[in-house]
Amino acid sequence: MSLENISLDINFVRSQFPAFKDALSKKWSFFENAGGSYVPQNVIDYLTKFMTSTKVQPYAEYDMSKIAGDEMDRAIELFANIINAKKNEILIGGSTTMNIYVLSNAIKKLLTPGDEIIVTNQDHEANIGSWRRLQDYGAIIKEWKINKSTAELEIEDFEKLLTNKTKIVAVTHCSNIVGTINNLKVISGLAHKKGAYVIGDGVSYAPHGFPNVKELDVDFYTFSLYKTYGPHLALLYGKEEILKNLSNQNHEFLEGEIPYTINPGGPNHEELVSLIGIHDYFQNLYSHHFNDEESNLRKKIDRLNKLISDHEEKIAQPILDYFSTRKDINVIGKDKIINKNRAPTISITSKNMSSKKLSQLLVAENIATRNDNFYAWRCLKALGIDTNDGVVRLSMTHYNSMEDSEKVISAFKKIKE
Fold first, then answer.
1. Is the dihedral of CA 338, 83, 188, 127 positive or negative?
2. pTM of the model
3. Each residue of 40-86: pLDDT tens digit?
4. Taking Cα atoms as reference points, which of 222, 203, 235 lies closest to residue 395?
5. Reading across the β-sheet that carries 90-93, which strands appear in turn?
C-alpha cells in the first residue's frame, strides 16, 4: 500500500492515551494542545517504573543506579536521533524559557557593542525576552514586524533588516497565535550569508511533526516536550562546533563538557527517562500503520509526520471553512491548511463579545479551550487586539478526531452571530 493510501487510525491513536478513558477528562473535547498535550501510556509507564525501581543517584555501579544512568542516556540518544542531531548536541532542561535564557547568557560574551540581534513580534516571549535583554550589554535590537493585515512575517522585510552586523536571528518556526509555519531553511540561509546565528523556536511546530534540524540548518532549535506528549521538560539543540565556543554556564569542573556547559543543574532524572515513552509511542504508531522493516528512526519520523499532517489538515479545515461563513468571527492567519502551510492552531476573536465570554460559552459545551495572549502579547498588540482579553485559541493535534471538530462547529452554531 502506498503512503498516499494510508490514513491515520484515530481509534488506535486515542487508545494509546489514557486521558480518553479517564472519568474526568474523557468528557472533554480537548482543544488546548498548544498549551500542553496529553501523554501516552508509554510515558506514564516509564515514569512509574523509574520512580519505583531506580529513584536513586545515577551512574554508580550497583544495578539500580546503573540502570537509571543508562536509561537517562538512552532517552537523550533517542531524541537526538528523532531530530537528526548528535547526542552531544541536545540538552534537556526545565522549560524553553529557561533554555533560551541560559543560551543567551552563554552567547552574550561573543557579542560586542553595536552587534545586531533580530527578533520578531510574532514570537512567544520565550524566544524574545532573553535576546532583548542583551541590549543592556550594547546589542542593538531590530524587530522583524508582522504584516498587520495578514499577521504574517514576510521574507522581504527580513532581508531589509539583515546587515553585516547581524549576529543573532531569533524566529519562531510556527506562531502559537497565527499558526503559520515560517520557512526556517530559507531564513537560515539568508542569515548565514551575514554570519549570523539562527535560533528557531519550534514549540508550536514540533507537536505536529518532529523537525530535521540538519535539514533546516538552524544553529539552535528548541521545543517543549510537554507539548510533544511528554512531561514538563524542554529540548534545546545546538550545533556542536558552536556549543564548543560558548561560555560555561555550569560548574567550573564541567568546562568544555558540552552540552552540560549550558544546562546548569541538569535534567529532571525521572522525567528525562519517561521521554523514552514518546519514542516507543511513535514506534508503535509506525508499526501499526506501515508493514515494513525500516530501521532508520528519522525516516520513520518523516513518514509519520506526513501521516499526521494529513490527518490534522482533514480535521482543521472544516472548522476554518465554518468560520469563513461567520461574519462575527475573525480568524487570525491563513484560512486554508494545506501542505503544512500552517498548524491546526486556530486563534479567533468575536465582533460581538469578549474572548473571555466566548471561551466561557465553549467551555459550557465541554470544549476545553481558553482565552489569553498566550505569551505572544507583542503579536496581539500589533494586530490591535486587547492583550488582556486576548484571543480564543482552538489548538488540535493528531489525536483529535473529526467528532471533536464537529462538536466545535455545533457549539458555535448555538452562538448567535
1. positive
2. 0.96
3. 999 999 999 999 999 999 999 999 999 999 999 999 999 999 999 99
4. 203
5. 90-93, 234-238, 220-224, 197-201, 166-172, 116-120, 140-144
